[in-house]
């Protein structure tokens, strides 16, 4: 029986709630703008970059004693409203996850006093992320990473001191390092601590293209780690 893992808990094992049917595999839509072409055949579509968010509806039900049914639903709502881990994983596709950005939960229908029925709508980013791509790996000078999927926006952790130059596929950026620094291409920020972020002064935030990615660097660097964030639509 299919289950889902979210916010460090299992829907089935921790709440004794079943998924009525497997949600459909969603395909996100590219962000585009339609431009009418006067006198032309059809319209012009301009790609704006990125993918639209998707909504994954999960129909759920559970059975318990009449005096417990509403307390069970309250526990579920509390779990969904206090998110510490935004990964949504379905157990029949356990190597991939969605990034949840918002959650809507329907009201609960109570059937014959013992059965609760409701729907959770998970609003997610328009990509499916590979679970092992969310772990840091060590990078050495002149390393080649192969990306089997779509363009990825990694998180890089540099340890060292002074000005560090990083080159990925001949696209370079420079950053000042004082012990360590993170470069987050998804958020387009650099930071030592999250509450004190800033922009790169020189160069663009790195991406990992489909295929081979050659990584090199210069400077007083002790270690180079990267979360590749492999993803596909």
UniProtKB/TrEMBL annotation:
It comes from the Bacteria. Residues 27-124 form the Siphovirus-type tail component RIFT-related domain. This is Phage tail protein. The lineage of its organism: Bacteria, Bacillati, Bacillota, Clostridia, Eubacteriales.
């Amino acid at each position: 029986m299919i289950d889902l893992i979210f916010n460090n808990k299992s829907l089935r094992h921790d709440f004794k709630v079943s998924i009525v049917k497997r949600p459909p595999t969603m395909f996100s839509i590219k962000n585009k703008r339609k431009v009418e072409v006067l006198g032309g055949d059809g319209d012009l579509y301009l790609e704006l970059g990125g993918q639209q968010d998707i909504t994954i509806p999960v129909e759920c039900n559970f059975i318990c004693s009449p005096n417990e049914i509403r307390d069970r639903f309250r526990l579920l709502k509390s779990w969904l409203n206090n998110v510490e881990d935004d990964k949504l994983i379905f157990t029949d596709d356990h190597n991939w996850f969605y990034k949840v950005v918002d959650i809507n939960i329907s009201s609960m229908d109570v059937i014959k006093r013992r059965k609760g029925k409701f729907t959770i709508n998970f609003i997610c980013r328009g990509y499916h992320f590979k679970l092992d791509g969310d772990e840091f790996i060590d990078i050495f000078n002149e390393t080649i990473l192969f990306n089997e999927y779509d363009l990825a926006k990694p998180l890089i952790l540099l340890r060292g001191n002074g000005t560090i130059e990083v080159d990925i596929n001949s696209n370079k950026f420079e950053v000042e390092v004082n012990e360590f620094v993170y470069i987050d291409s998804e958020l387009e920020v650099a930071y030592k601590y999250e509450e004190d972020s800033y922009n790169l002064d020189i160069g663009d935030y790195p991406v990992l293209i489909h295929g081979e990615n050659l990584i090199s660097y210069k400077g007083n660097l002790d270690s180079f780690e990267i979360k590749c964030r492999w993803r596909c639509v």
